[in-house]
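dumping this here before i forget
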Amino acid sequence: MAVIRSLPGRAALCATLGTAAALALAPLSPASAATPFGTERLLRSVPSVAADVSQRPQAAKLGATAAATGTPPQIAYSVAQLNDSDDGSIASAVARLNPLTGVARTLVADQRRLLTAQAWSDDRFRVYFGLLDFTQETEFTNVDSVSQAGGTPRREVEGALSLDVRRDGQRLVYVREEGETANIFTSNAAGGDERRVTGSGALNARFSPDGSRIVFTRLVGGLENGQADVFTVRADGTGLTRVTGRANTDDLAGAFSPDGSRVLFTRISQEDGLPHVYSVGIDGRGLRLVRANAADPDWASNGWLTYLTVNGSEEDFDTQVAIRAPGIPGAETVLTRERNLVTAVRFAG
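structure:
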């Protein structure tokens, strides 16, 4: 079974597995024999997307909604399954999904390491994904990318846990290991001109639409008894602002709204371990429930929302990709019928 030995390893899980974040944040040790998912029931195939979504009633509703509100962007998502072995290996894949047709294509798959969708390139031609190896004595983390048509991945940032791309494509923001912690850095698209943004720990990071600010998750109060909260900071490292701080919850940063005035995040109660998606103003005011029993939200530039629906309990849950049109209550469409655990979802734009 997979054992998370370090803060960077747990940070990688928190950055990519919203539905399992409470477990990832918990102190794990070889004696606990815990898995990062809290369940052995994860998988059957990688990936298995609902065939012919256009034949389902939800898709007819989606088509009519898209005609009125604009087309939802392409989606990248990832799935995972725990292998039947004792070395902690995890089979996983990253796929591209067209929300209007329901057609999905596997872009990259791995039989031993955890791959998680992170971001799209500004031209929508490449998908960035995190790579985490639990089978090593020290967790092995990188961010790679792959063509939206599939093919051979290429290395983007060595030692990174998560990554986002500024809308103009000129800068990257990523969380990278530094000893027993992990901090935020930015660089140009080629990996040069690297600059440290934070120096006191981070779990994930996303750019605002104009690239001036970064929203991220920080573990406050220490590894053993702390909680995860959402912060924002200017891209130059100044103007640190705490956005959330409710007791007995873990809040994981998601994405900025299209106008940059609000942020999406996943809130997980430390009592029942179930996640819910909220939005809040960047000043911490105006908290709104977006979707109960959901995780890992993303906000497209044209206002569409995507997130993972979460059904079940902390010990045994099911996740699927869903999207919602802007400004239309109840306009949710579940796009997948995965038998694996869906671990992350990202819009292309």
